[in-house]
Design brief:
mainly alpha; about 75% helix; about 0% strand
């Protein structure tokens, strides 16, 4: 079962990265063109944050099932930080009145989350698109 979860965790990273890239590009486009904040940003931001939360949950389940080694501490800390960075702009914009919602927090939060993901993957000695080593 651990092998299947590891493959799910490793495969989901591609969806997380794709969702992050889409959210970042959408936010940049909205910001640079001066478009009003819209439902599309809310959906792309929430999708990225949700997939990242699922990724963190799968990782924590793997650790709870005994998949643990020393380098994993840095990986865990950075991935949890990435999930927080991705969730913050989504939560902030939800609480603001519609006329005060904007794209820059999504640009910053998504970019920070993607950088933390990259650092977290490097912490365990892998590349972002390298195959899983069992």
């Amino acid at each position: 079962m651990t092998t299947g979860l590891l493959h799910a965790h490793s495969g989901l990273r591609y969806l997380v990265l794709l969702a992050g890239l889409i959210a970042l590009l959408y936010a940049l486009y909205g910001w640079l063109t001066g478009r009003p904040y819209d439902r599309g940003m809310r959906i792309t931001g929430a999708s990225f944050a949700g997939l990242l939360h699922l990724q963190v949950l799968l990782g924590l389940v793997l650790v709870a099932m005994g998949t643990f080694y020393g380098q994993l501490i840095g990986h865990l800390v950075m991935m949890i930080g990435a999930a927080v960075a991705a969730q913050l702009p989504v939560s902030m914009m939800r609480r603001r009145p519609p006329e005060d919602r904007s794209y820059p927090p999504h640009v910053v939060g998504t970019l920070l989350a993607l950088l933390l993901i990259w650092g977290g993957v490097l912490a365990i000695g892998r590349g972002l698109i390298s195959p899983t080593v069992l």
